[in-house]
Amino acid sequence: MKVRPYSEVDVFSSEPYRGNALAVVHEADGLSVEEMQRFATWTNLSETTFLLPPTTPEADYRVRIFTTKEELPFAGHPTLGTAKAWLDAGGSPRPDGTVIQECAAGLITIRVAEDQLAFAAPPLTRYEPVDEPLIRRITGILGIPRENILDASWLVNGPRWIGIRLSSAQEVLSLQPDPGKAGDLEIGVVGPYGPMEETQFEVRAFVGGDPVWEDPVTGSLNAGLARWLTDTAVASAPYTASQGTVLGRRGRVHISLSEGKIWVGGQVTGCIGGTVRL
């Protein structure tokens, strides 16, 4: 075992401990995949990341991202959280105010602003309507009638999200899904607020087969939803989505569109710093 720098950050909330926590192991050279997965399972957070030197001069650092059960090629809140941890440990943005992250999905650009980080969403690798038998299975998981689902789409960008659109934020908040029926499906649900509300959409994310069944605030899902909602003219960017409300969190995900790219942003706070023997 080796003593390595370690940090935990809170992502997508202006209030510390009201967003989504991320564990970050710095100087992770020499760790095997098995050791990384074991530690990620032990933290019992939705994701744990491992900072490594980049393999290309185009990147500032490389990251590997693990849930409690598997490695992901990309995920949103780990991208912003890892960038924050790297910056807090002495990293510096490039002259144009960006950081370039290397991960299994490729190079991800992160914009660094005074009070917010934002990543450029990678392309969706599966983006198509969901077939009717699967939609009907999802109605059983969510415990709602078929007519409540206005639309459904695959939104795969690392995690294998299926986006489900309901008619209102209140419908989203009222869901009482059954994790025992979910299998290995990853389901994201979105519904709009009224015109005078603080945020424009409420989002919830359900991950079948994971101890962290409902993810508090989810960057990758919001990235996929933003592409889908703007493409179908359900939403126009910029907009803000809230997530984690039913869990007592106050997640805020800020979506913007620039030169055809979806940008997913939020505030990130460093909460814990120290070392880990790993």
Description:
By secondary structure, this protein is an alpha+beta fold. The chain contains 5 helices and 17 strands. The chain has helices at 33-43, 76-88, 132-142, 169-174, 219-231; strands spanning 3-11, 20-25, 48-52, 61-66, 71-72, 98-103, 106-112, 117-120, 151-156, 160-165, 186-192, 201-207, 214-215, 239-243, 251-258, 261-266, 268-277. It has a 17-stranded mixed beta sheet that branches. α2 (76-88) crosses α5 (219-231).
Brief summary:
The protein is an alpha+beta fold. It contains five helices and 17 strands.
Task: Report on the biggest sheet.
Answer: 17 strands, mixed
Mean pLDDT: 97
How many H/I helical runs?
A: 5
The fraction of residues in strands falls at 35-45%
Radius of gyration: 18 Å
Shape: globular
Unreliably modeled segments: none
- N-to-C SSE string, H for helix and E for strand: EEHEEEHEEEHEEHEEEHEEEE
Count of strand segments: 17
Structural class: alpha+beta
Helix content: 10-25%
Distance from N terminus to C terminus (CA atoms, Å) equals: 5 Å
Pfam families: PhzC-PhzF (PF02567)
Organism: Arthrobacter jinronghuae
Protein name: PhzF family phenazine biosynthesis protein
